[in-house]
Amino acid sequence: MKLNRIVTAALFAASFAAPALAEDKAITEALKIEKQIRETCDKVVPAFVFIGGGSGVLISSDGWFLTNHHVCANPQTMTVDQLDQTCNLAGGHFYKCEVVGLDPLGDICLCKIKDAHDLPFVELGDSDDVHTGEACIAVGNPFMLGSMDYHPTVTFGTVSANHVNANAGYTDVIQTDAAVNPGNSGGPLFSVDGKLLGINGRISTRFSNRVNTGIGYAIPVNQIKRYIRDLKKGGYVRHALIQGLTGAKTMQDAHDEFEGAVIHEVTKGSTAEKAGFKVDDRIVSVEDQAVHNYWRFLGILGTYPPGSEISMKVKREGETVEIKVALDKMDLPPQAALKPDLGATFNDAEDGTGVVILKVRSKTDAAAKGLKPGDIITKFNGEEVQDAPGLAKAILKLRPRKTVALVVKRGDASLDLEIVLEGRAKK
């Protein structure tokens, strides 16, 4: 982030230069900064993605891109209305894409442009190296203005704070005053040299007006890096906790001259007890990040996925003790704990080829697309269907709301159908 600091310092110096002695120098420096910003925008804007009414950004040449969960999914039901979607790159290039990984709590979706290669993409930066006062660039589609000609909006500002526990529902964010508005959701926040710092997600508003007030929040890219492997596996990712060490009853802020989070209770037999935590321990750092209070502790914890082994330092009777602990899995929200379902019951076909439909449930996409009892499914997503157990297994490998291709035999006719899988509660 050295370049960001140089730019910020140059802007500051130029604004206070003595007019009589340094006017030419100030103008020269300002033009250099302007040139740098223009060059960075020319580099990063081609990787911008228009999706739905929001924004996204490509992070690989083969089509992986990031956006917000709330851009692609209903935040109440956490279901994706249409997993097979379309998107446009800057300039209007049209592509088919699919939502692959969903992180409702972190408000991130990882999507993939189908059959993509040689696409422009951006480099991931280091969000932990971001400092207050550094310059930053936000690219987005505010109020869908960019969708009119598929040229995104670019705004310039400063990082107001880093590692903020925002009231926006995020545990850890970069706060910026770069203008972001509805439609910027899912769009990138860049350093001046074009490194991705985070994904713009939400803003603070006043008087119920959903317009920029100078406070925007970006999900830090380092958090996204830690979850990217799980996101690529598909479906919903889980966040982490330390069993026996979360909740207001077990931990509170240090209410004296010291900072930190004080443990008041350690559940017997829990992960916390097994790791070596004790009552009255005061947690002062997690992975070398200072813990000022209980909320900061939760904020840092929220950036690591389950299974991560993290190092924590606690103050215990005047000594500093280091404790390592592997993070537990947080339960998925009930809305996300759904299994994929065809919307119909089926059994092996009598002639041994494919499966026969026994019943189609009403108000399902299968019913809407015309699947009927007696139809014989011979292919599912391009693969031959051998028997009912094989089809059931193939369905369970996918996600609710996934669009699947069927080849159906109906009498002497062969039909091609595309059906969206239902989501049913797991028993």
What is the CATH topology of the largest domain? Thrombin, subunit H
Number of strands: 30
Gross morphology: flat
CATH-defined architecture of the largest domain: Beta Barrel
Strand content range = 35-45%
Structural class: alpha+beta
- The helix fraction, in percent, is 10-25%
Number of domain modules: 3
Mean of pLDDT: 86
User: What is the CA–CA distance across the termini?
Assistant: 50 Å
Give the strand order of the largest sheet, numbering strands 1, 2, ... along the chain.
1-2-3-6-5-4
CATH class of the largest domain: Mainly Beta
The largest β sheet comes out as: 6 strands, antiparallel, barrel
**What is the alpha-carbon Rg in Å?**
26 Å
Low-confidence stretches: none
Q: Helical stretch count?
A: 8
